[in-house]
Amino acid sequence: NKFVAGFIGSPPMNFIDGLLKKVDGKFFFDEGSFRVKLVDEMRAKMGPYENKEAIFGIRPEDIYDKLFVQEAPPENCIVATCEIIEPLGSEVYLHLVSPSRKHTFIAKVGAHNKPGINQDLNLVFDMSKVHFFDKDTEKVIV
User: Fold this and answer.
1) Handedness of CA 15, 38, 142, 67 (dihedral sign)
2) 54 has which bridge partners?
3) Domain ranges, residue 6
């Protein structure tokens, strides 16, 4: 469930509220200011959640700066603003805010990644590693 997912890991899993939508037979998670496509393997479990609110969960290490990714499917990319940079030796925690400014989240990136404060970053979500939780029960959907 969401509690356990948020409890495990440091930094903990990021949670973003939004809507699960189906467009042309494909499912998307829509936060309002950005939209990402779910992997096909998730589609079978999403039917009952079409056009319903859900919680999107992604671990900080599954968010990448597009500059350092060879393959970045456009449907998995968003723009977010870097508010805080937390260098920790071989890695850096980037504290980010969504375009809507409704959600903050953390990306765990390599030390070679050096954005500026208040800089907009093009990010890539590894959609094969995300989780979805029921908005009401907080139980895992997929």
Assistant:
1) negative
2) 18, 134
3) 2-134
pLDDT digit string (tens) for 34-74? 999 999 899 888 989 999 999 999 999 999 999 999 888 99
d(CA 20, CA 52): 6
Say if 82 falls within a structural domain.
yes
Residues 90, 128: Cα–Cα separation, whole Å: 25
- Residue 16 in any domain: the answer is yes
Q: What is the pLDDT of residues 77-99, one digit of tens each?
A: 999 999 999 999 999 999 999 98
Residue 22 pLDDT class (50, 70, 90 cuts):
very high
- Amino acid symbol at 20: L
List strands edge to edge, sheet with 77-87. Answer: 63-65, 120-125, 77-87, 91-97, 104-110
For residue 70, the model assigns a pLDDT of 86
Number of folded domains that form the chain: 1
- Map residue 116 onto helix, strand or coil: coil
- Assign 43 to helix, strand or coil: helix
Question: Is the CB of residue 36 less than 8 Å from the CB of residue 127?
Answer: yes
In the predicted model, what is the mean pLDDT of residues 108-120? 94
